[in-house]
Specification:
Layout lengths: L5 E2 L6 H12 L2 H8 L3 E4 L2 E5 L7 H16 L5 E3 L7 H9 L3 E2 L15 E4 L6 H9 L3 E4 L3 H15 L3 E5 L5 H10 L7 E4 L2 H11 L5 H8 L9 H4 L3 E5 L5 H19 L4 H4 E2 L6 H16 L4 E5 L5 H11 L4 E4 L10 E4 L15 E4 L8 E7 L5 H16 L5
Parallel strand pairs: 1-7, 3-16, 4-5, 4-6, 6-7, 8-9, 8-10, 10-11, 12-13, 12-16
Antiparallel strand pairs: 2-3, 14-15
Helix pairs in contact: 1-3, 6-7, 8-11, 13-14
The structure holds iron/sulfur cluster.
């Protein structure tokens, strides 16, 4: 069989797509704010932009490769396995460029085969999906981020050494599914996905011998590898994360599980029974740190966090902010309906379970008179032009009401 082509380092068209990328995602407003010490001032309005925000290195690269793929294979069908990143604006741009989404109902018609090109997004795909695409003879453009590959390397090692990978992540998230599949590369490899502290607490109870097996499996049955046996498989555990989780929560979960293992097996057994390593990517960490600095130093009245509602790293930025000030997570600039009305997704504070609350509208979100300091950040999948449009709309809103 002819081996399918896999491009992992771009397609030698970086310069050729530079202009298209700038046209679609660059913002002069944002560049001006950067130059002005991340501050924008207009009348009564001051906006403080977080010093790290928006596209991360992994997203930058994935979007760049997608544009390169479209150009290089202009006469072939080009697919994405699903959303390239969790931002509706970027996905729409790619659709408009003629890239098809395998996740869309009815795609592909006719079926995939040799001659088709498939782009693998920054969060990767499961081993099963990769094998399927290779088996069909598709040309692959693999944009899986290096930070995700680093997690995979550790999860693979856990499996080889007989440890169950306990993954802090969202079980349905593409990255977590891909990471979990890495545990299965080794015969007998196992995984368990925990969403938050509450779920980690239930796992800790079981490790300490306080859990009920049926209740455990009823709760985690969809978040474990096939044939998972909590009595056998929680004896040796290694921690990993979806790279975009809340870092403070990941660290806390790792510590909760370590303590439970110490309680069960004693401190001397830890070297043989417990592993952990830091798998939050540096871009996620920098964005979370930057927003904390902003909240600590700038006397912010309210925060706006811009990014897709299904973007894990954006949701976690919003959770950090919601602990401290009124916070509005908006998917796009159109959610800023007027100086009095905003549509946004409510954000639970970081010590509450993650919840997918429906979008809601709030009236009176922007103080009508007097100075207002708005903190602004954006998730790793939000392009700068959206951030720039948000700034321009805020400036227009603030101008419509008196200084007071
Ligand atoms: S958030 Fe981190 S792991 Fe995910 S694409 Fe960006 S840099 Fe890579």
């Amino acid at each position: 069989m002819v081996q399918p082509l896999i491009f992992r380092k771009g397609l030698d068209l970086k310069d050729a797509v530079k202009g298209d990328l700038a046209r679609d995602y660059h913002s002069d407003v944002v560049e001006q704010i950067r130059k002005n010490d991340f501050r924008f001032e207009d009348g009564r309005l001051v906006i403080h932009l977080a010093r790290e925000f928006g596209f991360c290195y992994g997203v930058d690269r994935a979007v760049d490769y997608a544009y390169q793929a479209r150009k290089r294979f202009a006469d072939q069908r080009v697919f994405l396995t699903g959303e390239i990143i969790h931002n509706p604006h970027v996905n729409q741009k790619l659709r408009s460029a003629g890239i098809l989404f395998l996740s869309d109902p009815g795609e592909p018609v006719p079926p995939l085969g040799a001659g088709d090109v498939v782009i693998i997004p920054a969060f990767g795909v499961t081993l099963h999906e990769l094998a399927r695409l290779q088996g069909l003879g598709c040309t692959l453009v693999d944009t899986t981020c290096g930070s995700v590959l680093n997690v995979w390397k550790n999860v693979t090692r856990y499996a080889r050494e007989g440890f169950t990978a306990v993954i802090h992540g969202k079980v349905k998230h593409e990255e977590t599914q891909a990471t979990a599949s890495q545990a299965l590369k080794t015969p007998g490899g196992r995984y368990l996905v925990v969403l938050d502290r509450v779920e980690a607490g239930a796992v800790c109870d079981y490790i300490r011998g306080d859990g009920d097996r049926d209740a455990f499996m009823a709760r985690f049955g969809k978040a474990v590898s096939e044939g998972f046996d909590p009595d056998r498989d929680l004896g040796h555990i290694g921690l990993a994360n979806q790279t975009t989780m809340l870092m403070s929560e990941s660290l806390e979960i790792a510590e909760m599980l370590r303590k439970a293992m110490v309680d069960r097996y004693g401190p001397d057994a830890m070297a043989d029974r417990y592993r952990s390593f830091d798998t939050i990517c540096s871009a996620t960490q920098e964005r979370q740190d930057a927003v904390l600095t902003l909240l600590d130093t700038e006397g912010i009245d309210l925060m706006l966090v811009v990014g897709g509602y299904n973007s894990s790293n954006t949701c976690n930025l919003a959770r950090i902010c919601a602990d401290r000030v009124p916070t509005y997570h908006i998917a796009d600039v159109d959610r800023l309906e007027s100086p009095t009305r905003i549509r946004h997704r409510p954000v639970p504070p970081s010590d509450q379970p993650m919840a997918k609350l429906p979008e809601t509208a709030t009236d009176g979100w922007l103080p009508r008179v007097g100075p207002v300091r708005i903190g602004l950040t954006a998730g790793a999948s939000t392009p700068n032009n959206i951030v720039g449009m948000v700034v321009e709309r805020l400036a227009a809103f603030a101008a419509t009401s008196p200084v007071g």
